[in-house]
Design brief:
By secondary structure, the chain is α+β, with helices and mostly antiparallel strands. It contains 3 helices and 3 strands, in the order ααββαβ. It is globular, with a radius of gyration of 12 Å.
Length: 73
């Protein structure tokens, strides 16, 4: 579960951590295999959720979530 003090990772951060390509990360995220957040058009990942994925202990709280922000005028 992501906490307010936890910095979210980019797809590049996840790719480096898992030692895979960035496209692998995008494909797994879009298929729902990797838990992620969508902030606008960008994918972001909780380090805690990615660690759980690696350990095979993915939390039931780990979900794919989209955030749609309001545009400031």
């Amino acid at each position: 579960m992501t906490t307010m003090s936890e910095k979210l990772w980019t797809a590049q951060d996840v790719a480096e951590f898992l030692q895979v390509s960035r496209s692998w990360v995008y494909h797994r995220a879009e298929s729902g295999e990797l838990p992620h957040f969508r902030v606008g058009g960008a994918l972001r990942f909780s380090p805690t959720d990615i660690d759980a994925y690696v350990r095979g202990t993915r939390s039931e709280n780990a979900r794919v979530v989209s955030f749609v922000g309001r545009r400031s005028k």
